Amino acid sequence: MRRTLGKLELNGIGAVGCENITRDKLDTTEIHSYRMEAMALLDGMTVLSRLGWEGTIQWHTDSKAVIDTFKKYRRGVKASTWTKQRDKDVWEAIIKKQKGW
Length: 101
What we know:
Helix content is 45%, strand content 10%. With 101 residues, the chain is mainly α.
């Protein structure tokens, strides 16, 4: 989508396949808001780490589920909650990125 004079217009670009932001490619064929919000967080973390960002970051998202999951896994992963976790591939990559922050 592109923004023109305060309006969003379709630009005709669409994609299905794999997101190549880590060494492990993430499947993007299953699309739902929770997964996309988590992938946006991962993309931001990836870009900032590649830039060598050392400052503080303040994330803004309207996805309470992603915020809660991020906070939960920042304290460590428990087997009981991990077995129920949706989109493990995305969260595994986020957890790896968190260790470097």
